[in-house]
Batch of 2 targets.
Target 1
Amino acid sequence: MPAPAGENRKPGEIAAREARSRANLKPLQLLRPYVLKYKAVAIAALIALIVSSAATLMLPFAVREMIDRGFSPEKQSLINIYFAGLFAVGALLGISSAIRFYCVSWLGERVIADVRADVFRHLSRLSAAFYEKTHSGEIMSRLNADTTQIKAAVSTSVSQVLRNAVMFIGALVLMVFTSLKLSLLVLVVIPVIIVPLVLYGRTVRRYSRIAQDEVAASSSFASENLSAIRTMQAFTSETLVANRYAAAVSRSFDAAVSRTKRRAIMTASAIFLIFGAIVGVLWYGAHDVMEGVITGGILAQFVLYAVIAAACLSEFSEIFGEMQQAAGAAERLSELMAIPAEIRSPADPRAFPDHAKGEVTFESVSFTYPLRPDHPALHNVSFIARPGERVAIVGPSGSGKSTIFNLILRFYDAQQGRILVDRVPVERADLTALRKRISLVSQDTIIFAETVIDNIRYGSPDASDEDVRAAAKAALANTFIEQLPEGYNTLLGERGVVLSGGQRQRIAIARAILKNAPILLLDEATSALDQESEKLVQTALERVMRGRTTLVIAHRLATVINADRILVIDGGELVEEGTHAQLLGAGGVYARLAGLQLEGHQEGALAS
Ligand SMILES: Nc1ncnc2c1ncn2[C@@H]1O[C@H](COP(=O)(O)OP(=O)(O)OP(=O)(O)O)[C@@H](O)[C@H]1O
């Protein structure tokens, strides 16, 4: 049963994150290089922003002129000019706002598309060990939810922050010009407004981060369980799992409520403080007008500027919360991007010889999986598979057969000994060049939600349609493919045609034939096929093995009998090596395994 959401977190992890989250909006710097790639759009947005702010700031000036001079009969022509001017300002405001909105939204979408692509590129290179430690659901949440949050920040919040900043400064400057005395009064009030809001903002950010963590945990729980829906239903665990999910969702609800409460309090305080300050200043100014110190127009102009400045401030507090959420998301993405790909090509890779054709050598290899450091999966294993040789690997379940494949493909690095492919140690070779030399046909063929042709072409994107068809033919797959509703263009997998076990295997074989690598790693399927399907798969396998060095984890007697050599693995050690006849004669582990099968049914599992 999978661990309930949130339980797999190390204690102290949240506390450590909280400590970090007390920092500021710095994580958003992650976005800087992405934004700088589109300088022209960013500059256009900035210009539009300044123009629209300037247009807004002209309005109070016009109001003052109107009040102080406009309302007398002899000034009628003047008032017409003012209103015409105001229309023009309105048009400018509309156009510049539209340009700003377009540019900033474009930037947000573009930047986040680039971030997503980069994060995925990075994820695709991370090692098998990383995926053993991390829930795929959590990664999906980062790729989707976190990037969406950042998009909102980049496309709306940043633009609002900039607009408000420009307007706020502009309004302050114009306030000073309008009335120095009233401005000084406001300047005294501003810190009283800002300081508590900034301090409270930090708390909001901490709660945002917790809320996001809870969302990630619950979505990771859901995706893990839904991907194992058949197991869940077969064990009738639906209610249990659903209850656990409901609990996880409730925790994320509670966290969201805590965050929202704090944001609500922050918004209320901001509005009250700002509104109170304006009323106070207005009250003071009203006395000045009555005493004739300033005109009514000046007070109106001043108050409008103050209202603009105040509106900017109160929006700031809103946006600041959003920016803090985005900063939390950016921080999580940065953490993900900072995880190194443990398995990498060396800086100066050694080239494979052109002529050598698929030799695999294990020299005293010992290996433990990172998650089970005290349990050796392989111990002191040595063997050579020469070019063109067919080597069967047999042994009880859990003896280390698949581990041999994992090491040849360099999904992990062995702690001791050397693994060489065509006499080049695997960790000295370029990773792509190494894996290009190897075809893997595993027990469970993964079929992607793509067309038949794309599924076969998976490892060889440059192959022509003719090559794909030829490979399918060689793998005895073309007959059933041509009978599919749209032949080679039929959509397979999720929401497409579902293939039978034997058909999937033949697709996998076609993939391997198309890849045409000198080394074939074949994990024979244990699931029994019907006789006809079995025969087709066997013939297809014979074809793909021809002319290649083949290492096959064998489950069928026929496979081991036809092998040039058999390696018997037991408890991570190579305990016997030889042909079928030799090993039967030796009367060891192999003889026992083979005996079991011969006594039992003919197609029993030899290796498990
Ligand atoms: N990713 C992993 N992390 C930790 N331990 C692992 C991992 N994969 C396999 N093991 C352990 O390493 C040992 C060898 O596993 P391996 O998969 O190579 O066995 P196998 O012979 O292929 O078994 P089977 O025939 O059942 O597939 C087993 O004890 C297994 O529990």
Target 2
Amino acid sequence: MTFCDENNIDLIKEELRYLELLAKQYPSICAASTEIINLQAILNLPKGTEHFISDIHGEYESFIHVLKNASGVTKRKINDVFGNSLREKEKESLATLVYYPEQKLELIKKDETNLKDWYKITLYRLIELCREVCSKYTRSKVRKSLPQDFAYIIEELLHEGNKKVNKLEYYNGIIETIIDIDRADEFITAISKVIQKLVVDRLHIVGDIYDRGPGADIIMDKLMKHHSLDIQWGNHDILWMGAAAGSKCCIANVLRISLRYANLATIEDGYGINLLPLATFAMNQYEKDDCKGFKPKTLDKLLTETDTILFSRMHKAISIIQFKLEGQLIKSHPEFLMDDRLLLDKIDIEKGTINLYGKNYKINDTNFPTVNWKDPYKLTKEEECLINKLTNSFVNSEKLERHIRFMYSKGSMYTVYNSNLLYHGCIPLNEDGSFKEVEIAHGKHKGKDLLDTLDRYAREAYFFKNDKKSKAYGMDILWYLWCGPDSPLFGKEKMTTFERYFIDDKSTHKEKKDSYYKYRDSEEICSYILKEFDLEPDSSHIINGHIPVKSKEGESPIKACGKLFVIDGGFCRAYQPQTGIAGYTLIYNSYGLLLTSHEPFESTQKAIKENKDILSSTIILEHVNSRKRVADTDIGNELKKQIKDLEMLLIAYRKGLIKEKK
Ligand SMILES: O=P(O)(O)OC[C@H]1O[C@](O)(COP(=O)(O)O)[C@@H](O)[C@@H]1O
Ligand SMILES: [Mn+2]
């Protein structure tokens, strides 16, 4: 005993009120000692595996697949257990069974001639694999993860090794019975799900769950069922948080992006938001306009001619509403320093030009039926009525509320976890690499303080329902976080949405990145950032998402000699031609850090039928020979504190300062 020296009675006396409370939970010397032994045992277990994923962008099928294969962890466990005793094909098939038990069973049952034999072999293999996966956890944690129906049987099988001769019959008996009473399918499914769950102890989502792809709502449903995760908000997530809070600028942007990718399923089917008012408005206002510049990006989706024209009109209608609303917001917040984004008033509609930074450019479309050029940011009555209706739908969507509340409860601007600093975009820096001061609500903030302050305002936007002024300010901050020049989630000087729709000259489309992106390859700057977040630079890392790594052009996801990793998942199919792969994910297990690159995911069906995985290669970033234990983690530090408290309680019992309650 160190800290709790028997003679350190004064300290114990000071803590007596707290220890009395603790005594309620551990009412005797025996109870307190048992807990100390339990906690000490946990400290010696290997550290749990962490899985980092980012920039999912609604691609639910590939995301769910990566969750299931845990970026290769499941395959590695299969290799550890079966090594050369199984053929590669058998290992692949076993892996697919673990990922998709119900669907794979269907296929196997169609082909297998001796099903009983197959069940028997497979059950043995799954139990072996499950035992390996569970070996990192306490029995109690494993027990809590078991499905009710099979909890007792799985526990028996896991802890009764089939090698002990006297237990062999008992063990075999259970397996035979499972098959004979026709419960093998259910058992295989149950144990596969236990393996899937326990293979990763903690999931980190480094932002951008929403937009572009077809099923962000499906991803959110999946995440809500996950046993242990944290989220670092991405600029697209914050946009949806703003929309759910009722920010009209955010709502217009969300709808514009959904229409740009012809992805209305999330809005309409996922969140039950009625788009009929927008469709009717667009058909009336843009009746004679084919809105060519607003044709949706459909990727492999097939759209009818009628839908294409309808979506294009809706897309243009909501874009114009967005530019007007954003103009109003920018004017009311001069401290956002976004006046250069006031563009409608720079249009000379007669000449068909726009004046940008002193230079005239031709605009490719001059049909603005709702713009009054004397007051271009004013909404027409119809536009106002429409955006009010849409806002009502967003704030009253029950499912959206559930998802966004979850985003708030699990999410934040950044996370520090086991010596890693996780954030989506950047920490704004000056040209010289120092932290950039940003003005928010009449105060200046930089570095960690900037992120903490923005985090607070982001919460006020949603939760300050009775303080309308603070809520409105918070909502404007959410929009600023989406596209403001010093937003840590956006990290670019401007979002050139208007230019990309209306000006063909591509030089105007450029979005200059924050100085951070120039410096993040520097060890010195990464250390400077880590220190700002109270981390020890030599043993810590920064984990970043947001900007896709262009592997095709030889860019590496490893920056600053391994101090910073960019894991933009590249799930976003629209961006895969540029990146060349489907991005990176990171694994942090008890031996170190591994970066996995992924191939584009074709389909769940193909993954099941052909046992196709999408892992292309794994780079070991750091490897230690002595495994990291729970004692070396954040949870370990918490447990050590609990042990110290319990040791004090023991002394208090023994000295009679607190009486045992028998
Ligand atoms: O290619 P799209 O979907 O039009 O989006 C382009 C816009 O998306 C952004 O890249 C932001 O989205 P990301 O956070 O996914 O990078 C903007 O900088 C850019 O203006
Ligand atoms: Mn992003």
